[in-house]
Design goal:
Elements lengths: L11 E4 L15 H12 L4 E5 L27 E3 L4 E6 L1 H16 L3 E8 L12 H14 L5 E7 L9 H14 L6 E4 L1 H6 L7 E4 L5 H11 L5 E5 L18 H13 L3 E4 L24 H13 L6 E3 L6 E5 L4 E6 L5 E2 L10 E7 L6 E8 L7 E2 L9 E7 L1
Parallel strand pairs: 1-2, 1-10, 2-5, 5-6, 6-7, 8-9, 9-10
Antiparallel strand pairs: 3-4, 11-12, 12-13, 13-18, 14-17, 15-16, 15-18
Helix pairs in contact: 3-4, 6-7
Length: 403
């Protein structure tokens, strides 16, 4: 991803489906929205995956939620009436006036709104697909929000997953959007089945992939679409520090961080989920929680800082023989290696390193500490750099420079 002026944009997203619901009764300001946006933007997150509207979800330990943070079944509704008794003949302008303030503040903080126009699994009472009422809502959203410079369109979360429509409906929505959007904002669909069938319809590929060996899967997608950015919008890692809101494949904070790194080293972008903000529970004042209940957002800040420092836009995934996951910067003659937990050395061989002078430094991605290691002339391709004893983190990064 790159801005129009050529500046690289390293995407690190944060899922906040119910962001629209915070402060909606406050006609003057959005203090809770600002608080959580300030927190995540200060930690390097520069895109928020959000719904225009969501109602409820059929999961989670509801009895453990502090009522101050519970936004399930909001009384606000983008149409006339309510979600239970909708009047699709009209739109609720005050709803969109509030959403204006949220997206405008995201823009102030240089955070992109990845705006999902629909969602089918959050109990929303939508008008019939392709009806006049459906088209009115869709057109209005596109016309109203297209001019915000911090906007990326997503037709629907899990667009084909719940029997609401088919691929032809999604294609029709994309065509309709592009005919209305004079600013040509980027478009994607939170559905890999659709993106893989119609890659020409989207500007970047969104994929939801939960498999255990995430790196290999994401490498395959990156190779398949070399001309488009790849965004793993939901990789099965849902960080849990308190009670559960969604029982996904992975909840351990360490494993969630590792899966984000797997996406990055495969050459793709990723999304972070914290269970107590990503759905109908939104803890807006994260930093006021007891330390043991706070998510480790600082880990992701270091990830972003590291990838920006090392020019992710220049890095190419590399794996040769027995080597671990790596990213290669040919311009700087540098290779970054991601060593999983319990891996003791950079093994394997890389042919073009023969006869080169090679130096290795080791980084703890949890605290950012960097340790200078060996420097040596290489007579063969085999590397065999043993992990520095000073690195005690569960996994680490090795920075290899050659000349």
């Amino acid at each position: 991803f790159t801005y129009a002026d050529g500046t690289p944009y390293y995407l690190m997203a944060y899922e906040l489906d119910w962001l629209f619901a915070l402060d909606w009764q406050n006609q003057e300001d959005i203090p809770k929205s600002k608080q959580i946006i300030n927190t995540i933007s200060s930690r390097g997150f520069n895109q928020v995956v959000m719904n225009v509207y969501a109602y409820d979800a059929n999961w989670g330990e509801r009895d453990k939620i502090d009522p101050r943070y519970d936004y399930a079944k909001p009384t606000v509704f983008p149409f006339g009436g309510s979600n239970e008794e909708p009047n699709f003949d009209k739109l609720n302008i005050s709803f969109f006036q509030h959403l204006d303030r949220v997206i405008a503040y995201l823009n102030e903080k240089n955070v992109v709104s990845h705006l999902m126009i629909y969602v089918w699994n959050k109990n929303v009472n939508w008008p019939e697909a392709s009806s006049a009422e459906d088209n009115r809502y869709f057109d209005y959203v596109v016309k109203r929000y297209q001019a915000y410079p911090n906007l990326v369109w997503d037709i629907s979360k899990e667009a084909l997953g719940y029997g609401h429509n088919d691929m032809s409906y999604i294609s029709d929505r994309i065509d309709r959007l592009r005919s209305l959007d004079a600013h040509k904002r980027l478009v994607s669909v939170h559905d890999y089945q659709y993106c893989s069938n119609f890659p020409e319809k989207v500007d970047f590929i969104s994929i939801q992939e939960w498999v255990p060996n995430l790196y290999n899967s994401m490498r395959g997608v990156v190779k398949k679409y070399p001309d488009k950015p790849i965004f793993n919008i939901e990789h099965g890692g849902y960080d849990q520090t308190m009670h559960a809101i969604f029982w996904g494949a992975y909840a351990d904070p360490l494993e969630c961080l590792w899966r984000n790194y797997e996406c990055v080293f495969a050459g793709s972008y990723s999304t972070y989920y914290w269970q107590n903000t990503s759905w109908y529970e939104v803890v807006h004042d994260i930093e006021k929680l007891p330390t043991e209940h706070q998510p480790r957002l600082d880990w992701y800040q270091r990830l972003v800082e590291f990838m920006e420092k090392h020019h992710f836009e220049r890095l190419e995934p590399l794996q040769s023989g027995f080597t671990t996951y790596a990213l290669h910067d040919k311009q700087e003659q540098q290779i970054l290696f991601l060593l999983p937990e319990n891996m003791q050395m950079i093994a394997g061989g890389i042919d073009f390193l023969q006869g080169k002078k090679v130096s290795v430094s080791w980084m703890n991605p949890f605290n950012g500490e960097l340790y200078k290691g060996q420097v040596r002339e290489k007579s063969g391709a085999w590397m065999g750099f043993r992990k520095d004893d000073r690195v005690t983190s569960p996994f680490c990064i090795a920075i290899l420079k050659y000349e």
